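Re: weekly structure request thread

Next one in the queue (302 aa):
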Amino acid sequence: MQIGLCLPHYGRALEPSRLLQVAQRADTQGLDSLWVTDHVIVPRDIFIAYREEMLDPLAVLPWLAGVTERIALGTSVIILPYRSPLPVAKLLASVDVMSGGRLIFGAGVGWMEGEFDALGVPFKERGSRTDEALELFQKVWTEREPEIETRRHRLRGLVASPMPLQRPRPPIWIGGASEGAYRRVARYGDGWHSTAATPEAFRQGAESVRRFWTEAGRQGTPVLSLRIPFWLDEIHRPGTDMGYLRGRPAVHGTTRHVVDALRGFAALGVTHAALDVSLTTYPAILETIDVLAREIRPALAG
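Done, posted below.
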């Protein structure tokens, strides 16, 4: 199992120097990935960590490409209906080039209706807009002179640039826990990016993803990944109100307990875990990275 870290660019005082420490420590300690998270403007009455002090992921991602050297850079997840798809595709292709081919593109439809209202995007169109965006991404990331006509876009006689460094394109992992999301993995994606699932919920979702993948005639198997809140009890120092986590899945406990929990997810097919450490303090995050590199990853590899 590969181990990544969700960069805590939300829900706390913005301290770029400390974000830099976290990113570079994860990179130099050999973790596999760093992940950024997407929300634009959150309703005041929704109690989530992303409501306040949230840097835009599409600003953070190019910065990460410049301050790290080898670690993969992922989006967990870009909410595609929020933005015009072609500028986003160009920005992400640019990140892939400037990072030396390190992008993992996680995409989703979104769920926060008030945010859609604020952005002037019809909530009921989020699925069709996401599918359309993914079709466009597939084209402009693989064809220099793409030709495609969708409901809202017509590409003829145009040149797409830059092309991503990765071939045939960066991996696309689809987020969500609905039949529509599972079908979207099979139609447009390379894998499923589950969020905060219990082992049983993950097992059921993975079974659905595999079934739709087979029905779509796809070759090979889909990548199965998991984003989940995470802390180590022996290091953890609460850095924010954890009330919104009440009743939600998380991986936490002693190092031994965490290894066992991650092994359980690995047995269900998870090959990449993105650990959300935003609930703890920066000093504790740095210590946690060291333990992940020194103890937890070797235990999972063994």
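The longest helix spans residues 282-301. The chain has one domain: 2-301.
Next request, please.
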